[in-house]
Amino acid sequence: MRGLLADFKTFVLRGNVVDLAVGIVIGVAFAALVQALVKDLLTPLIAAIFGKPDFSTLVFRVNGSVFRYGDFLNQVIAFVTIAAAVFFFVVKPINALTAHFSHRETPEPTTRKCPECLMEIPVKARRCAFCTVELGAA
Fold first, then answer.
1. What does pTM read for this prediction?
2. Residues with Cβ within 8 Å of residue 78, at least 6 apart in sequence
3. Residue 120 has what pLDDT?
4. d(CA 71, CA 52)
5. How many CB atoms lie within 10 A of CB 30?
6. What is the pLDDT of residues 69-112, one digit of tens each?
7. DSSP states along the chain
8. Separation of CA 130 from chain center
């Protein structure tokens, strides 16, 4: 029994499990924030433009079947807003940071081409090993 608990403790405290748990908690909080943005700011803004405060009441009927396209429209607006928020507040900053820190200087070349035979020779060579032409300083 003690070995089983030790294995469980090792599993739970493993770095990727903790990172995943933190990511889920932050994701849920972020989703709630974006949903509030949609519900409290964007939907009323759209309502001010189109005159409808909530699209969930929009329906149409065909042969007694009710199609609630308004609720679908609300979900589409929420999805697009969440996707835009993730893109502009997570993806773009992370890509910018990654590009900034991964910028590496190009290493100095170790070879050059012989002007006579165009073979690759060491930069510090004074004579080409292939055609024996004398070379100036690199």
1. 0.48
2. 34, 35, 38
3. 93
4. 13
5. 15
6. 888 888 887 788 778 877 888 889 988 888 888 777 778 889 99
7. -HHHHHHHHHHHTSHHHHHHHHHHHHHHHHHHHHHHHIIIIIHHHHHHHHS-S-GGG--EEETTEEE-HHHHHHHHHHHHHHHHHHIIIIIHHHHHHHHHHS--PPPPPSEEE-TTT--EEETT-SB-TTT--B----
8. 50
